[in-house]
């Protein structure tokens, strides 16, 4: 019997020290195996959202509850993205892990920068902060040239640090921008495995021009997680 996919709310910390309800996608039947999924950041989150929902659906069929929270400022959030910081997002994912009683975590791409400490799991094709920024800055350089008012990478980065900037449709504040420029991936703790694209197979979906879905890749990713979680239960 499958569990219905639900939109639920969870209490996320805010940048001013309060809390605000944010949304999460969840398959929750109250089972012991509970996976927190931290999606990619910014544009890659859009490209992989459908794919990750299908992974969660497959995990539900394997007896695993799963939760994919919205980061403050993203998707259905009422928070302002330009006010968010990398540390605030880290606090949010830590709270999500506790609230959903996660027993494991899957981070995807830049989501690895937000992995809560103390949980076993997987970093899938992780990206550090400079790499997260690089593709979006490159896209703005190309777009500004095509629009007839070219900007250099140096100009874009200086603006990002001083006042914030819109990259690929995402309004990134100066504190977030500066933090991403130097953000390194967290140390991979005992029980956290690196999961590369070769293991999953196929061409990475984040390289495609539009959001897409690949059933074979979803099957492979869900299988790796389900087998490991059952073996450790």
Please provide a written account of the structure:
By secondary structure, the protein is of the alpha/beta class. The protein folds into 2 domains: 6-127 and 185-232, Alpha/Beta hydrolase fold, catalytic domain (Rossmann fold, 3-Layer(aba) Sandwich); 129-184, no CATH class. 40% of the residues lie in helices and 20% in strands. It contains 7 helices and 9 strands. The chain has helices spanning 43-61, 86-99, 129-146, 153-163, 174-182, 197-200, 215-232, and strands at residues 6-13, 19-27, 34-38, 65-69, 104-108, 121-124, 165-167, 170-172, 192-195. The strands form 2 sheets. Strands 1-2-4-3-5-6-9 form a 7-stranded mixed β-sheet, sandwiched between helices. It has a two-stranded antiparallel ribbon with strand order 7-8. A hairpin with a 2-residue loop joins β7 and β8 (170-172). It is globular and about 55 Å long. The model has no long low-confidence stretch (mean pLDDT 94).
Order of helices and strands: EEEHEHEEHHEEHEHH
CATH architecture call of the largest domain: 3-Layer(aba) Sandwich
CATH class of the largest domain: Alpha Beta
Mean pLDDT: 94
Shape: globular
Class based on secondary structure composition and strand pairing:
alpha/beta
Q: Report the radius of gyration as a whole number of Å.
A: 18 Å
Unreliable sequence segments = none
- What's the CATH superfamily of the largest domain, by name? Alpha/Beta hydrolase fold, catalytic domain
The overall strand count is 9
N-to-C CA distance: 21 Å
Residues in β-strands, percent: 15-25%
Report on the biggest sheet: 7 strands, mixed
Helix content: 25-40%
Q: What's the arrangement of strands in the largest beta sheet?
A: 1-2-4-3-5-6-9
Number of helices: 7
Q: CATH topology of the largest domain, what is it called?
A: Rossmann fold
């Amino acid at each position: 019997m499958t569990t219905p996919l639900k939109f639920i709310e969870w209490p996320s910390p805010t940048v001013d020290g309060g809390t605000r309800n944010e949304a999460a996608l969840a398959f929750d039947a109250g089972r012991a195996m509970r996976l927190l999924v931290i999606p990619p950041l910014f544009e890659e989150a859009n490209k992989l959202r459908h794919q990750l929902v299908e992974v969660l659906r497959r995990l539900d069929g394997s007896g695993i509850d799963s939760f994919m929270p919205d980061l403050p400022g993203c998707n259905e959030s009422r928070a302002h993205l330009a006010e968010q910081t990398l540390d605030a997002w880290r606090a949010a994912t830590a709270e999500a892990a506790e609230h959903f009683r996660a027993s494991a975590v899957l981070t995807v791409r830049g989501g690895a920068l937000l992995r809560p400490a103390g949980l076993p799991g997987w970093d899938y094709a992780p990206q550090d902060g400079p790499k997260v920024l690089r593709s979006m800055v490159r896209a703005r350089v190309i777009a500004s040239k095509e629009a007839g008012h070219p900007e250099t990478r140096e100009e874009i980065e200086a603006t990002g640090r001083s006042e914030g900037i819109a990259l690929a449709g995402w309004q990134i504040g100066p504190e977030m921008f500066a933090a991403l420029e130097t953000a390194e991936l967290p140390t991979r703790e005992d029980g956290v495995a690196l999961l590369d694209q070769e293991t999953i197979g196929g061409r990475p979906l984040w390289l495609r021009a539009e959001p897409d879905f690949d059933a074979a890749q979803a099957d492979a990713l869900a299988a790796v997680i389900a087998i490991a979680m059952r073996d450790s239960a």
